[in-house]
Write a structure and sequence with these properties.
Distance between the termini: 58 Å
CATH class of the largest domain: Alpha Beta
CATH superfamily of the largest domain: Formyl transferase, N-terminal domain
CATH architecture of the largest domain: 3-Layer(aba) Sandwich
Strand order of the largest sheet: 5-2-1-6-7-8-9
Strand content: 25-35%
CATH topology of the largest domain: Rossmann fold
Number of helices: 8
Shape: elongated
Order of helices and strands: EHEEEHEHEHEHEEHHEEEEEEH
Helix content: 25-40%
Radius of gyration: 22 Å
Number of strands: 15
Largest sheet: 7 strands, mixed
Structural class: alpha/beta
Number of domains: 2
Protein backbone atom coordinates (compact mmCIF):
# COMPACT_ATOMS: atom_id res chain seq x y z
CA UNK A 1 0.00 0.00 0.00
CA UNK A 2 1.16 3.55 -0.72
CA UNK A 3 1.27 5.36 2.63
CA UNK A 4 2.17 8.75 4.06
CA UNK A 5 3.32 8.31 7.66
CA UNK A 6 2.87 11.09 10.23
CA UNK A 7 4.66 10.80 13.57
CA UNK A 8 7.32 12.48 15.67
CA UNK A 9 8.56 10.99 19.00
CA UNK A 10 10.32 7.77 19.95
CA UNK A 11 7.09 5.87 20.52
CA UNK A 12 6.25 6.24 16.80
CA UNK A 13 9.54 4.79 15.52
CA UNK A 14 8.53 1.10 15.82
CA UNK A 15 5.40 1.75 13.74
CA UNK A 16 7.35 3.36 10.90
CA UNK A 17 9.88 0.52 11.04
CA UNK A 18 7.12 -2.11 10.96
CA UNK A 19 5.47 -0.61 7.88
CA UNK A 20 8.83 -0.39 6.11
CA UNK A 21 9.68 -4.02 6.97
CA UNK A 22 6.43 -5.20 5.44
CA UNK A 23 7.26 -3.62 2.12
CA UNK A 24 4.70 -0.82 2.01
CA UNK A 25 5.54 2.12 -0.22
CA UNK A 26 6.19 5.02 2.12
CA UNK A 27 5.66 8.06 -0.09
CA UNK A 28 6.70 10.52 2.63
CA UNK A 29 7.19 10.87 6.37
CA UNK A 30 5.76 13.98 8.05
CA UNK A 31 7.13 15.05 11.45
CA UNK A 32 7.24 18.11 13.65
CA UNK A 33 10.05 20.56 12.81
CA UNK A 34 13.49 20.08 14.37
CA UNK A 35 13.66 21.88 17.74
CA UNK A 36 16.55 23.63 19.52
CA UNK A 37 17.72 21.73 22.57
CA UNK A 38 20.49 21.74 25.16
CA UNK A 39 22.64 24.58 26.36
CA UNK A 40 23.90 25.28 22.85
CA UNK A 41 20.33 25.34 21.49
CA UNK A 42 21.36 23.15 18.59
CA UNK A 43 18.57 21.86 16.36
CA UNK A 44 17.60 18.36 17.44
CA UNK A 45 16.15 16.01 14.85
CA UNK A 46 13.16 14.05 16.13
CA UNK A 47 13.35 10.23 16.43
CA UNK A 48 10.99 9.53 13.52
CA UNK A 49 12.87 11.88 11.19
CA UNK A 50 16.14 10.17 12.11
CA UNK A 51 14.71 6.76 11.24
CA UNK A 52 13.24 8.11 7.99
CA UNK A 53 16.69 9.45 7.09
CA UNK A 54 18.18 5.98 7.69
CA UNK A 55 15.52 4.41 5.47
CA UNK A 56 16.10 6.97 2.71
CA UNK A 57 12.56 8.35 2.90
CA UNK A 58 11.33 11.84 2.07
CA UNK A 59 10.85 13.87 5.27
CA UNK A 60 8.47 16.83 5.44
CA UNK A 61 8.47 19.08 8.54
CA UNK A 62 5.86 21.82 8.24
CA UNK A 63 5.14 24.29 11.02
CA UNK A 64 1.47 23.45 10.40
CA UNK A 65 0.40 20.31 8.60
CA UNK A 66 -2.32 22.20 6.69
CA UNK A 67 0.51 23.74 4.65
CA UNK A 68 1.07 20.32 3.05
CA UNK A 69 -2.41 19.73 1.65
CA UNK A 70 -1.36 20.32 -1.95
CA UNK A 71 1.95 18.47 -1.71
CA UNK A 72 0.42 15.42 -0.03
CA UNK A 73 -2.38 15.29 -2.59
CA UNK A 74 0.24 15.17 -5.35
CA UNK A 75 1.84 12.15 -3.68
CA UNK A 76 -1.47 10.25 -4.13
CA UNK A 77 -1.29 8.08 -0.99
CA UNK A 78 -3.87 5.38 -0.46
CA UNK A 79 -3.71 5.81 3.32
CA UNK A 80 -2.37 8.17 5.98
CA UNK A 81 -0.89 6.39 9.04
CA UNK A 82 -0.66 8.61 12.14
CA UNK A 83 1.24 7.83 15.36
CA UNK A 84 1.84 10.57 17.97
CA UNK A 85 2.27 13.22 15.30
CA UNK A 86 1.58 16.16 17.61
CA UNK A 87 -0.84 18.18 15.46
CA UNK A 88 -4.55 17.82 14.72
CA UNK A 89 -5.16 16.96 11.09
CA UNK A 90 -7.63 19.34 9.40
CA UNK A 91 -10.36 18.04 7.05
CA UNK A 92 -8.31 19.03 4.00
CA UNK A 93 -5.63 16.52 5.07
CA UNK A 94 -7.99 13.80 6.30
CA UNK A 95 -9.67 13.66 2.89
CA UNK A 96 -6.52 13.27 0.78
CA UNK A 97 -6.26 9.46 0.85
CA UNK A 98 -9.07 7.19 -0.43
CA UNK A 99 -8.84 5.04 2.72
CA UNK A 100 -8.59 8.09 4.98
CA UNK A 101 -6.30 8.39 7.98
CA UNK A 102 -5.67 5.66 10.55
CA UNK A 103 -4.36 6.57 14.00
CA UNK A 104 -2.61 4.46 16.63
CA UNK A 105 -3.68 5.51 20.14
CA UNK A 106 -2.09 4.18 23.32
CA UNK A 107 -5.19 3.21 25.26
CA UNK A 108 -8.21 0.94 24.91
CA UNK A 109 -10.62 3.45 23.45
CA UNK A 110 -12.98 4.99 24.41
CA UNK A 111 -10.95 5.06 27.64
CA UNK A 112 -8.28 7.74 28.04
CA UNK A 113 -8.87 9.88 25.00
CA UNK A 114 -6.39 12.73 24.77
CA UNK A 115 -2.71 13.62 24.94
CA UNK A 116 -1.47 11.73 28.01
CA UNK A 117 -3.05 8.24 28.09
CA UNK A 118 0.13 6.45 29.20
CA UNK A 119 0.84 8.71 32.17
CA UNK A 120 -2.80 8.89 33.23
CA UNK A 121 -3.20 5.09 33.09
CA UNK A 122 -0.42 4.68 35.65
CA UNK A 123 -1.57 7.59 37.81
CA UNK A 124 -5.10 6.19 37.92
CA UNK A 125 -3.83 2.81 39.09
CA UNK A 126 -5.07 0.82 36.10
CA UNK A 127 -3.88 -2.79 35.86
CA UNK A 128 -4.40 -2.95 32.10
CA UNK A 129 -4.27 -0.46 29.27
CA UNK A 130 -3.57 -1.15 25.61
CA UNK A 131 -3.37 0.12 22.05
CA UNK A 132 -6.10 0.90 19.54
CA UNK A 133 -6.17 1.67 15.84
CA UNK A 134 -8.98 3.88 14.66
CA UNK A 135 -10.20 5.93 11.72
CA UNK A 136 -9.42 9.58 12.35
CA UNK A 137 -12.35 11.97 12.22
CA UNK A 138 -12.78 15.60 13.27
CA UNK A 139 -13.10 14.78 16.98
CA UNK A 140 -10.44 14.08 19.61
CA UNK A 141 -9.86 10.31 19.46
CA UNK A 142 -13.53 9.73 18.64
CA UNK A 143 -13.20 7.76 15.39
CA UNK A 144 -14.40 4.23 14.74
CA UNK A 145 -12.10 1.57 16.22
CA UNK A 146 -10.48 -1.01 13.95
CA UNK A 147 -8.34 -3.23 16.22
CA UNK A 148 -7.32 -3.25 19.90
CA UNK A 149 -4.72 -5.09 21.98
CA UNK A 150 -4.55 -5.05 25.81
CA UNK A 151 -1.22 -4.47 27.58
CA UNK A 152 -0.69 -5.12 31.29
CA UNK A 153 0.73 -2.40 33.54
CA UNK A 154 3.42 -3.72 35.88
CA UNK A 155 3.77 -2.66 39.52
CA UNK A 156 6.99 -0.76 38.75
CA UNK A 157 6.13 0.54 35.29
CA UNK A 158 6.96 4.15 34.57
CA UNK A 159 5.53 6.18 31.71
CA UNK A 160 8.80 5.47 29.89
CA UNK A 161 8.82 1.69 30.35
CA UNK A 162 5.11 1.30 29.64
CA UNK A 163 5.39 3.60 26.63
CA UNK A 164 8.15 1.44 25.18
CA UNK A 165 6.00 -1.70 25.39
CA UNK A 166 2.95 0.11 24.02
CA UNK A 167 5.02 1.42 21.11
CA UNK A 168 6.08 -2.11 20.16
CA UNK A 169 2.60 -3.57 20.60
CA UNK A 170 1.11 -0.68 18.66
CA UNK A 171 3.51 -1.16 15.76
CA UNK A 172 2.32 -4.73 15.25
CA UNK A 173 -1.31 -3.66 15.62
CA UNK A 174 -0.89 -0.90 13.04
CA UNK A 175 0.79 -3.28 10.60
CA UNK A 176 -2.09 -5.75 10.98
CA UNK A 177 -4.58 -2.92 10.52
CA UNK A 178 -2.97 -1.78 7.28
CA UNK A 179 -2.98 -5.34 5.92
CA UNK A 180 -6.69 -5.74 6.71
CA UNK A 181 -7.48 -2.39 5.12
CA UNK A 182 -5.60 -3.41 1.97
CA UNK A 183 -7.72 -6.57 1.80
CA UNK A 184 -10.97 -4.74 2.54
CA UNK A 185 -11.46 -6.86 5.67
CA UNK A 186 -10.84 -4.36 8.46
CA UNK A 187 -13.54 -4.30 11.17
CA UNK A 188 -15.07 -0.96 12.12
CA UNK A 189 -16.74 -0.37 15.48
CA UNK A 190 -18.17 3.00 16.59
CA UNK A 191 -17.04 4.04 20.06
CA UNK A 192 -19.48 4.05 22.97
CA UNK A 193 -19.49 7.76 23.84
CA UNK A 194 -21.08 7.05 27.24
CA UNK A 195 -18.00 5.08 28.30
CA UNK A 196 -15.44 7.70 27.24
CA UNK A 197 -12.81 8.91 29.71
CA UNK A 198 -10.12 11.49 29.13
CA UNK A 199 -6.38 11.95 29.53
CA UNK A 200 -5.62 15.68 29.23
CA UNK A 201 -2.03 16.93 28.83
CA UNK A 202 0.08 16.98 31.95
CA UNK A 203 1.14 20.28 33.51
CA UNK A 204 4.52 20.57 35.21
CA UNK A 205 2.86 21.44 38.52
CA UNK A 206 1.08 18.07 38.53
CA UNK A 207 4.41 16.52 39.45
CA UNK A 208 4.50 18.32 42.81
CA UNK A 209 4.18 15.79 45.63
CA UNK A 210 1.58 16.47 48.31
CA UNK A 211 2.78 14.29 51.18
CA UNK A 212 -0.66 14.42 52.80
CA UNK A 213 -1.92 12.05 50.10
CA UNK A 214 -1.76 8.25 50.59
CA UNK A 215 1.55 6.59 49.73
CA UNK A 216 -0.10 4.37 47.12
CA UNK A 217 -1.36 7.41 45.21
CA UNK A 218 2.04 9.08 45.36
CA UNK A 219 3.70 5.88 44.17
CA UNK A 220 1.56 6.07 41.01
CA UNK A 221 2.32 9.78 40.62
CA UNK A 222 6.10 9.24 40.77
CA UNK A 223 6.00 6.45 38.20
CA UNK A 224 3.45 8.10 35.92
CA UNK A 225 5.38 11.38 35.84
CA UNK A 226 8.68 9.69 34.89
CA UNK A 227 10.28 11.03 32.71
CA UNK A 228 7.99 14.08 32.32
CA UNK A 229 6.97 16.27 34.04
CA UNK A 230 8.84 14.50 36.83
CA UNK A 231 7.64 14.16 40.42
CA UNK A 232 9.24 16.70 42.74
CA UNK A 233 9.17 18.08 46.25
CA UNK A 234 11.02 20.90 47.98
CA UNK A 235 14.05 20.39 50.20
CA UNK A 236 15.68 23.38 51.82
CA UNK A 237 13.86 25.70 49.43
CA UNK A 238 15.18 23.85 46.35
CA UNK A 239 13.33 21.37 44.11
CA UNK A 240 14.16 17.72 44.60
CA UNK A 241 13.11 15.32 41.83
CA UNK A 242 11.96 11.86 42.86
CA UNK A 243 12.14 8.59 40.91
CA UNK A 244 11.50 4.89 41.30
CA UNK A 245 11.82 2.08 41.81
CA UNK A 246 9.27 2.81 44.49
CA UNK A 247 8.25 1.11 47.69
CA UNK A 248 4.94 1.49 49.51
CA UNK A 249 5.11 0.89 53.26
CA UNK A 250 1.84 0.40 55.17
CA UNK A 251 2.92 2.37 58.26
CA UNK A 252 4.97 5.49 58.99
CA UNK A 253 4.63 5.53 62.77
CA UNK A 254 3.72 8.91 64.22
CA UNK A 255 5.74 10.91 61.72
CA UNK A 256 4.01 13.87 60.05
CA UNK A 257 3.54 13.74 56.27
CA UNK A 258 6.71 14.76 54.45
CA UNK A 259 9.04 13.59 57.24
CA UNK A 260 11.96 11.37 56.29
CA UNK A 261 11.75 8.22 58.40
CA UNK A 262 14.21 5.45 59.18
CA UNK A 263 14.20 2.94 56.33
CA UNK A 264 13.65 -0.72 57.18
CA UNK A 265 16.91 -2.69 57.15
CA UNK A 266 15.91 -4.58 54.02
CA UNK A 267 15.21 -1.26 52.26
CA UNK A 268 18.04 0.89 53.61
CA UNK A 269 18.87 2.16 50.13
CA UNK A 270 15.50 3.92 49.81
CA UNK A 271 14.57 7.43 50.89
CA UNK A 272 11.44 6.68 52.95
CA UNK A 273 9.00 9.52 53.55
CA UNK A 274 5.87 9.55 55.70
CA UNK A 275 2.62 10.20 53.80
CA UNK A 276 -0.99 10.82 54.76
CA UNK A 277 -1.39 7.03 54.76
CA UNK A 278 1.70 4.84 54.99
CA UNK A 279 5.11 5.82 53.68
CA UNK A 280 6.73 5.99 50.26
CA UNK A 281 10.22 4.71 49.50
CA UNK A 282 12.15 6.16 46.56
CA UNK A 283 15.22 4.53 45.06
CA UNK A 284 16.52 7.53 43.09
CA UNK A 285 16.54 11.31 43.47
CA UNK A 286 18.00 14.38 41.80
CA UNK A 287 18.87 17.68 43.44
CA UNK A 288 18.73 20.95 41.50
CA UNK A 289 21.69 21.23 39.15
CA UNK A 290 22.88 17.68 39.96
CA UNK A 291 22.68 14.35 38.22
CA UNK A 292 20.13 11.65 38.99
CA UNK A 293 21.58 9.19 41.51
CA UNK A 294 20.65 6.31 43.77
CA UNK A 295 18.94 7.13 47.04
CA UNK A 296 21.82 5.64 49.01
CA UNK A 297 24.38 7.87 47.32
CA UNK A 298 22.04 10.83 47.56
CA UNK A 299 21.47 10.39 51.28
CA UNK A 300 25.20 10.21 51.94
CA UNK A 301 25.97 13.26 49.78
CA UNK A 302 23.02 15.53 50.52
CA UNK A 303 22.98 15.05 54.29
CA UNK A 304 19.33 14.12 54.42
CA UNK A 305 18.46 12.35 57.62
CA UNK A 306 15.44 10.91 59.43
CA UNK A 307 13.37 13.63 61.00
CA UNK A 308 13.92 16.18 58.21
CA UNK A 309 10.84 17.47 56.44
CA UNK A 310 10.36 17.57 52.69
CA UNK A 311 7.91 19.82 50.90
CA UNK A 312 9.07 23.01 52.59
Amino acid sequence: MRIVFLGTPEIARPSLAALARRGHELAAVVTQPDRPAGRGRRLLRCPVALLADELGLMVLQPAHVRELAGELAELRPELLAVVAFGQILPPAILEIAPLGAVNLHTSLLPALRGAAPIQRAIMQGLAVTGVSTMHLDRGMDTGDVILQEPVAIGPQDTAASLGERLGLAGAELLARTVELLALGRAPRAPQDQARATYAPPLAKEEGRVDWARPARELDRLVRGADPWPGAFTMSGGQPLKLFGPTLVLPHAGAAAPGTIIVSPDEHKDYICVACGEGALGLAEAQAAGKRRMSAGDFLRGARLAPGMRLGE
